[in-house]
Amino acid sequence: MGLSIRAYARHRGVSHVSVLRAAKAGRIPQEPDGTIDPAKADAAWDAQTDPARKAPSAPEKATPIQPVSVAVQATSSPPPQRDALPATGTNFNQARTAHEVAKAQKARIQVQRLKDEVIDRANALALVFKLARQERDAWVTWPARVAGQMAAEAGIEPHTMQVLLENHVRAHLNELADLKPEFR
Q1: b or e along 13-38 (b: 16 or more beta carbons within 10 Å of the residue's beta carbon)?
Q2: Range of the structural domain that residue 97 is part of
Q3: CA 158 to CA 180: how far, in whole Å?
Q4: Three-class DSSP category at 3
Q5: Domain count along the chain
Q6: Cα 107 from chain centre
Q7: 126 lies in a domain?
Q8: Which residues contact residue 146 at a Cβ distance below 8 angstroms, ignoring those fewer than 6 apart?
Q9: What is the pLDDT tens value at each position of the chain, 184 positions in all?
Q10: Do 105 and 151 share a domain, yes or no?
Q11: Is residue 83 situated within a structural domain?
Q12: Is residue 18 part of a domain?
């Protein structure tokens, strides 16, 4: 059996409304009977609360030191871990870190755009397509331009040389057409 909402609020030094909101949001666990286990709730509260928004703790009053005898039990359970959270989600610090990383990446991309280090993907794809088409067209017209000279050097019919060159160039261009570039 744990503490009531008001008792836990006093334990925590916050208002009972804050405890109600935290319980309703699932930031602190409640027992099946509606009470709150202070050890579990403290760990969850600390892990899921923005450290910048935590209220400054009041200085503790000085108390005289008194000798106390301490008995250690051999079967004591380990203290609750601070990072032990419900498996339903991430804690506040993890979410905050992910948010800050995303903001930094966005800012880096904006700076690169301002410096013209980043190019538009659609424009790059259009330019690559245009250059590939120009190169293909140059290769398709090449046999007609050089077939006569090559035929004279080889001593064969110019038409035969042109047909042979065109067949080989087209076969090579078909091989190149099978290559699919990956743009990430």
Answers
A1: eeeeeebeebbeeebbbbeeeebbbb
A2: 91-118
A3: 35
A4: strand
A5: 3
A6: 15
A7: yes
A8: 165
A9: 688 989 999 998 999 998 999 898 888 888 888 899 989 988 888 887 776 666 555 444 444 545 444 444 444 444 444 444 444 566 888 888 999 999 999 998 888 888 877 777 888 889 988 998 999 999 999 999 999 999 999 999 999 999 999 999 999 998 888 887 776 6
A10: no
A11: no
A12: yes
The neighbouring-strand residues paired with 36 are 3
Which residues share a beta bridge with 3? 36
- Round to whole Å and give the CA distance between 93 and 138: 59
Are 107 and 125 within one domain?
Answer: no
Q: Directed axis angle between helix 5-12 and helix 38-47, to 10°?
A: 60
Residues 113 and 142 in one domain: no
C-alpha 146/C-alpha 32 separation (Å) is 89
Q: Has residue 112 been placed in a domain?
A: yes
Distance CA 69, CA 108 (A): 59
Please tell me whether residues 152 and 112 are part of one structural domain. Answer: no
Q: Tokens for 31?
A: 């027992």
Q: Please tell me the chain's helix, strand, coil percentages from 3-state DSSP, rounded to the nearest 5.
A: 60, 0, 40
Say yes or no: 150 and 164 in one domain: yes
